[in-house]
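Checked the freezer inventory, then went back to the computational side. Two predictions to log before the end of the day. The first one is the construct we discussed on Monday; recording sequence and tokens without edits.
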Amino acid sequence: MTPLAEILRPQSLDDYIGQQHLVGPGAVLRTLIDSGNIPSMILWGPPGIGKTTLAMVISNTLHRPFHTLSAISSGVKEVREVIEKAKNEEGSILFIDEIHRFSKSQQDSLLGAVERGIVTLIGATTENPSFEVISALLSRCQVYVLKEFGESEMRQLLTSAVNHYASQGRTVEIKEVEALFRISGGDARKLLNAIELVVNNSPEPTVVIDNQRTTNVVQQNLAFYDKQGEMHYDIISAFIKSMRGSDPNAAVYWLARMIEGGEDPVFIARRMLIFASEDIGNSNPNALLLANACFDAVTKIGYPECRITLSQCAVYLASSVKSNSTYMALANAQQTVRQTGDLPVPLHIRNAPTKLMKQLGYSEGYKYAHDYAGNFVDQEFLPDALRGTKFYEPGQNPREEETRRQLRAHWKEKYNY
């Protein structure tokens, strides 16, 4: 029996839901599709937001031969077979799902065909392609970021599902949506799977879907999601939140769940490396060093031995003092940049490698800190429009309190430390 998510998969751009920043009227990818000349590309975004569907819609719209491979079950042999077939076709599209799981050698096998235009590659990934796709291949592709579905898109999916069942002579009334939205978490596939579960488990001719019914049915069928890998993102979320909450016991439990479930240990190590800066930062700089050493060890020794290193790092990170001050400092600065644009660099801190630049006042008045007592001298480093703007607020922990005292000695009046 064909799943509801597959039945409702859009076949054209007009039916495609979401990602209007890419495929809406006048958007960058829509313009390329309309021109008939698309580049090789990487579609990056969370699961269930239309990456595979978009690749298929592009193929349908341009009437191109479409080949699909999964990085989980395909290797260099399958890639070469598709490339040989594509040599006898015009404008073939090769779609690779979960391209982040391809090894370096597998990705290398794509380079020649992509470069010569034998295939147009469309890769889909939930992971940052800067980390997961080799630079030679990444440089030959455009990266398009797809966004998680919001309430508007999810309601469109609900309407499509209800209309489909009506066309099959089945009345479905969605009375409450909160449980459906909570379960799906912005994932269209999860949403449609949940609706299908509820409908299939309801013998009455008119199915009324409310929060209670949704919760009861889905809880009884959790394995349905597990075998499809849908719990992957929930468990890594629980792992991160346990470390953030300073609970090493829970962190080790969720780590064990991932290890027993066959999760890629490099993926786990990378998430801990991100966590070390985002959630610990300068409250304990050793956390980043240990997480980086863990990542290095995992890539060198592999599974199963690396599981011990993963546990050591997870316990250390969970037990460490926490601070997101540097993460928030950057977020505040980025927000200011978006609001104020490209403000000019003050002349006195500009580079002046040429005579003309010196004549224009570049670097004039700059004070070299090491020429002054304590290696510090009060001068302005921000654009004039942002004088006195404080982005970094030290966290309330012993190490950053010491940082605060140092900053206060220099910038008490200017930044109110």
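The second is the one RB wanted added to the comparison set:
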Amino acid sequence: MSNGIDQNTRANVHRARLYSAAQVRELDRRAIEELGIPGHVLMQRAAAASFQALQQQWPSAQRVAVLCGSGNNGGDGYEIASLARAAGLDVDVARVGGLPVTGDAVAAHAGWVGPGGTVHEFDAAFASDALGRADVIVDAIFGIGLARDVAGLPAEAIAAINARRRGQGVLAVDLPSGLDADSGAVLGSAVHADVSVSFIGRKLGLYVGAGPDHAGRRAFSDLGVPTSLIDASDARCDLLCEDALAMLLPRRARSSHKGTHGHVLLVGGDTGMPGAILLAARAALRAGAGLVSVATRPAHALALAAAQPEVMFHGMDTAAGVDELIRRADVVAIGPGLGTGVWSAQLFDRCVRAGKPLLLDADALNLLARATATRLPVGAVITPHPGEAARLLGSDGRQVQSDRLVAARALRSRHPGCVVVLKGAGSVVHGERMAICPYGNPGMGVGGMGDVLTGVIAALLGQGLDTEWAAGAGVMAHALAGDRAVVAGAGERGLLPSDLIDHLRGVLNP
């Protein structure tokens, strides 16, 4: 199915890209060697971008403490210190480890100490005195090259930064020290920053694993490196961007009608579990489906119809009744409240064999994990949370969470041709390309949110979006609606799926 998106639009839907540490180092090398931009100039631009972010976030800051490592990240720190001094701020600088001895960091250090700047050795006294006085602490200890657990003096410095965080702002240069640039894993300990400024290429580790918890607000500067070089380079994956929704969801034609907006069939709601399928149905309607049908247990149909009269609820004790509903539908989504009994398994088998665009969630994924011989049709969408992903892969949730991109890749390998949506903080969408969603919030960690996502993606499939675009746009819309619900309400705690549904229209009519 297609909504007529042209090839140029398709190529530009994912505008931002995420890079591994090795890929960023290659970008840096090419900028220096092929474009002739001196490394020290790039370092000065990185410092300028960082100091600008500092001033924007903390415009009244008067005292800054900068902690510098011995590598190029420390060099950025010395350059930031020089800019802060030139702007009239009081600046304290400490080295965490040795002084730089090679590379552009040597020149940056000389630029700080030459006019009289002092470099202290980080210790408990500096932590108590300078960090205690500072309005902003700049973390320039480790950059993207860290590949071991933090220990010793750097660990003490990170602990001191985190201990002061409630009183002072923390700005991380490139990424918080102690965070793995690729996986977002914490290497022993890691800085909790309020703002992280990354350069040339956005670091994957800021968006996956523990990265979002440690990064704070993520800022980016390309340091004047032409986008032609950046875009022509390999990237690990894309970053879903809100402005893609306007491209994927253009204004509807005046001549359109319910038949052109898609007929979604939702299958689920076993005995005692009608709520999940109701949430999915409501979400599908709010996401723009023209018609929504639900196949559920007869005992639920009447009450559900009273709760949402716009939906066509069909009660069935045997799975055979679903065949006619499948025939009339444009999209089939199965799983919310489905259960795993005989009735559920029979519905599962009929939906998988139906030959219609298909989405599997919740108990449909648990049935899929049991039915190891089942082959899903090409283009099916599966939307597991980490626990369901672990069952599908025969692993455990901790392993899935340790590297979510690897898990998503493994799921797509297990089910070739499918689009995988690995839900969670930084939801991963893996089709022909891989993308990460930067939106959403912890308030969305409550039962029923996945059912809403099922309805949203199914509705977008029914409106003609290609499978991969429907999955990506659905994940974005779901997350953005969750963010709007938090802003409109009283915070994250107590956020309900129905609160999110109320904001879908505003998100999906950009």
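For RB: The chain has a mean pLDDT of 94. Residues 467-488 form the longest helix (22 residues). Let me know if you want it refolded.
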